[in-house]
Amino acid sequence: MSDSTINSTALPPREPSALLGGFNWLARTLATVAATLFGLLVLTFFIGRLLPLDPVIAILGDNASQSAYDAMYRQLGLDRPLIEQFATYVGQVVQFDFGRSLTSGNPVLSDIARVFPATLELATLSILIATGFGIPLGVLSAMYRDSPLDYIVRVLTLLGYSAPNFWLGLMGLTLFYATLGWVAGPGRIDFVYEYTLTPITGFLLIDAPLLGEWQAFANAISHIVLPASILGFSAMAYIARMTRSFMIEQLNQEYVVTARVKGLSWAKTVWVHAFRNIAVQVITVVALSYAFLLEGAVLIETVFAWPGFGRYLTNALLAGDMNAVVGCTLLVGTIFIVLNLCCDLLYHLLDPRTR
Amino acid sequence: MSRTDHPTRLRAWLTAEIAGSSRQARAQQLWRALWRLRSNFTALFGLAILLALLAMALLAPWIATHDIYAQNLANRLKPPSAEHWFGTDELGRDIFSRVVFGARITLYIALLTAAIVAPVGLLIGTVAGYLGGWVDVLLMRVVDIFLAFPSLILALAFVAALGPGIENAIIAIALASWPPIARLARAETLSIRGSDYVAAVRLQGASKLRIVINHIMPMCIPSVVVRVTLNMASIILTAAGLGFLGLGAQAPSPEWGAMLSSGREFMLTSWWLAAIPGSAILLTSLAFNLFGDGLRDLLDPHHD
C-alpha cells in the first residue's frame, strides 16, 4: 500500500468548475472508469489465454491423445483469431458468465457467490477494528506530537507496514489458540454448529442471532476475532498514519490558532473543527483500506482455514484452474475500480474545495 | 589521486565552499547527504540491518553451521540449543543455517525486482510525461489498469499463468510493481519539463530521446530511489506471501516464506518453526522501511 499511489488514484487533478463543469467532470470520470474496466478485460484475457500455461493441458492433463487435444483446442475456440476470442470473452463476461471451475465443476460465479460472504464478514469486522483504533490513534498522535503516545503509535504503524500478516496469523494461532486457549482455532465455526445454522444472509454473525442460536454466535465470534484483528492490524496502521499526517497538516493552519485564541479547548478545536476538515480524506482512506483487505484476506484465510474468497483463489491457483483465477481477478479489480470511483464521487460531493 | 591520500585534505576538498569541478560538487552533495543521515538514528539502524543482511547473504557458506539440506529425522523439531541456535525443523534441518541462506534468496528477489522495476518505471513515466498527448493518455491508462489491483492479487494471477517458481515470482512481482514508479516519474517530469534548462537544451537542437534520457531522467532518480526503497518492503512481503502459498520458491528451498509454509502443521507446538523465519522477514522489511523513510527525508525536497 503506497501512500502516493492511493492519493493520486483517489484524487486526479481537476479544474474548478460550475454545475456544467460538474457534469463534464462526471462524464470524464465515468469514461475513465469505462476505459479502465475495458483494460481490465484485456489484462485478464491475456492472463487467462495467452501466457505459457496451456489451457488444454490444464483441462485434459499431460497424457491426452493428440486427437483429444485437437478437439478440446477447437472446443475452447483457440483455433480462431485472437480478436474473435477476445470478443467472445467480453461477451461472456458482460453476461456474468465466467465459465466453469475445473476443480468444483460449478459455474465460477456461483462458487464466488458461495464463498464471498465469509470474506465479506471477515473484512467488515477487520475494517471496524481498524477504523475504531486507527482514527483515534492517528488524531491523538497528531495532537500530542513527539509525546510517548506518538512514538508508540509510530512504532505500531511501522510494524503494521512491515510485518507479514500471514506470519502474525501463525504466531497468533500458536499463542492465543494453542498455548493460552483464549480463542477458537482455524475455521469459521465449530463443526457441531456447522449444520444447525441454515443460511439466511450467509453471514454467520447475522444468521445466528436471527435464529436465536446464541451458542453458535459466541462460537463464531471466538473464531473470527483473531483473524479479524490480525487482518485489521495493517489497515489500522495505514489509517492511523494517514489520519496523523492529515491532522498535522490541519493543526498547522491559522484557524486552529484563532480557535485557541478565542478560548476553545484543545480537544474541542481538534475534534470539532480540525476533524471536520479531514473527515472526507479519512473516509477515502478507510474505503481504500477496505479494498486492500481483500489482498490480505488471501493469506489470512489460508492460515486460518477460512472458507472464503481468498482460499478459493489460492486453491484455484494451485490447481491451475484458470477460469476461477480470472473470475476472482476480475472481481477484485472491479471492486477496486468501483471503490475508487465512489471515493472520487464522495470527494466531489462532500468537499467543495475540490470543485 | 593526490587529494585522497590525506584525510584532512579530502575533508577540506569535500567541505570547500566553492566546488572547483562538477565532480567535486557531486562528491560534496553526497558528503552532505551522508552527514545529514548521520543524525537520523532510525535510518542508520535500517541501513545497518541491511548491510548485515547483505554480509550474511554473501558470506552464507561460512556463517552457516550445518548443511541446509541435510535431514536428520532422529533430531527433528528440537528447540533452540547450543548445537542448533534456532532449533531444527520437521525434517531435522538446522533452522539457523537455513535462515542465513534464505537471506540470499530474499535479497536476490528484492534486488532483481528493483533492477527491473526502477528503469522500466522511470522510462515509461518520463516518456509519458515529456511527450504528453496520446502517448501519455495511453501509458497512464495502462498504469491505471495495473493499479486497479492490489499487488499481491495481480502477482498471484501472473504466477498462476506463468507457473510457480522463483524466477516467475520475480517476473510477476515486477509486473505488479512498476506502475507506481511510472506514475511518480511522470509527475516529476511534468514539474520539470517546462523549466528553462530543458528549453535551453531543446533550443540547442537536442532530440526528444536525448532530452528525456540525459536531462529529465537524472532529475527523477532521487524520488524514484526513495520510492523503490520503500517498495522493497512490500516486494519482500509479496515474495514471502507467494512462497508461503507455495507459488514462489519451492521446498526444499530455504526461502523464508516457503519455510513458514513447510512446517505449518507443527507450528502450534513448535513455536520456533514460525517465529524465526517470520522474524527474519519482519526485520528485513522493517529495515527497508526505516532506511527508505530516512532517504526520503534526505533526498525528497517535496516531503515535509
What is the CA-based Rg of chain A, rounded?
Answer: 24 Å
One letter per element, helices H and strands E, the order of chain B comes to HHHHHHHHHHHH
Describe the largest sheet of chain B.
none
Helix fraction of chain B?
Answer: over 70%
Which pair of protein chains has the largest interface, and what are the residue counts? A-B, 56 and 54 residues
Structural class of chain A: mainly alpha
Number of DSSP helices of chain B? Answer: 12
Segments of chain A where pLDDT lies below 50 for 5+ residues?
1-12
SSE sequence of chain A, one letter per element:
HHHHHHHHHHHHHH
Low-confidence stretches of chain B: none
Structural write-up:
The complex is a heterodimer of chains A (355) and B (304). Chain A has 14 helices and no strands. Chain A is an all-alpha fold and 355 residues long. By secondary structure, chain B is mostly helical. Chain B is built from twelve helices and no strands. The chains are: A mainly alpha (355), B mainly alpha (304).
Structural descriptors:
heterodimer, A: 355 residues, mainly alpha, 14 helices, disordered N terminus, B: 304 residues
